[in-house]
Design goal:
The chain is α/β, with parallel strands linked by helices. It contains five helices and eight strands; from the N terminus they run βββαααβββααββ. A five-stranded mixed β-sheet has the order 1-3-2-8-7, covered by helices on one side. It has a three-stranded mixed β-sheet with strand order 4-6-5, covered by helices on one side. The relative contact order is 0.17.
Amino acid sequence: MDSITYKIIRSNRKTVALCAEKDGTFTVKAPLRMKASDIEDFVLSHRKWMEKASARVSEIQSFYDSFSESDIENMRAAAKTVLPLKVEKYSKIMGVVPNSVKINSAKKRFGSCSGKNDINFSLFLMAKDERAVDYVVVHELAHTGRLGDDDAQLNGLAELLCFLHELNELLGLKHGLSLEVFGTSHDLALHLDQLCIHTVRAGGD
């Protein structure tokens, strides 16, 4: 990375964030009164992170570009068969019931859950290791409501969750890549559209 180019977006905020966008560009989100020189110093101090983030964005794009139309249709068919069965399996363990399960071609995340407990899975999830698929299913089911208080259910869930911390690598993401991913930290494995690094507090005039 010989030169650093980035876009600055100012707003009424107290922190400054450097984000690698999905198109390979960088954005600095800064407070309204933060000095331009302070922004530049912040960016330069994270040059190594930017190099890693740039490589990661390219890796993500290569992942999606590697599939033909035939591959995509095959994954869609597989997702429609496999994922509802996994949802049914883990719903019983966790004591939760989603409103619906849908398959889409999202490239921003492998799974999501709406406020109405509708779960959406990306067909591209089928290109991942089966344990990683299980991770995403369990993660989204956890958003659908409170778990049952039955001892067997809770014990089953405890056994299930004991290996989840190992599965981010199976999804191709590394915790050390950024201090914070756009969204919450537990969504690290699911969000693929933006990587961010933040400071605790920004400087000002």
